[in-house]
Specification:
Layout: H1 3-30, H2 37-47, H3 51-81, E1 89-90, E2 93-94, H4 95-98, H5 112-116
Antiparallel strand pairs: 1-2
Helix pairs in contact: 1-3
């Protein structure tokens, strides 16, 4: 498997299981979708928001998730550059070492968000 595929395999997993699930959870909360008792009060408060306010909440959540992913990947890059004591392996390869900047792989027209996310970057 070539480097591109290993990086993309990790990126697709990250986008599908972290980014998109987090954004989808926010969408569900905004439309009062969940029945869990711990979420009912929050959903009731969110339900009262205008559509513009709900879009602002969703955009805020997306930006926060994207920022956390970026910071996590940047920290992995720093670890790889110095101690290299925390690694993420895909098909036996350290994916951070396969990239010239793992924290930038998600962005651009060919980045992970564009390729794999159900939600456009910055939405």
């Amino acid at each position: 498997m070539d480097t591109e595929n290993q990086l993309d395999k990790f990126g697709k997993f990250l986008v599908e299981h972290l980014r998109d699930k987090g954004i989808r959870k926010a969408e569900g909360l905004l439309i009062d979708e969940y029945k869990a008792p711990a979420l009912l009060n929050l959903q009731a408060d969110l339900y009262e928001l205008s559509e513009n306010q709900k879009e602002l909440v969703k955009k805020t959540v997306t930006i926060c998730i994207d920022s956390a992913i970026h910071d996590f990947l940047f920290a992995l890059q720093e670890k790889a550059d110095f101690e290299n004591d925390i690694q993420i392996m895909v098909d036996g390869q350290n994916i951070v070492e396969l990239s010239d900047g793992i924290h930038g792989e998600a962005y651009s027209d060919e980045g992970w968000y564009a390729k794999y996310s159900k939600y456009p970057e910055g939405s």
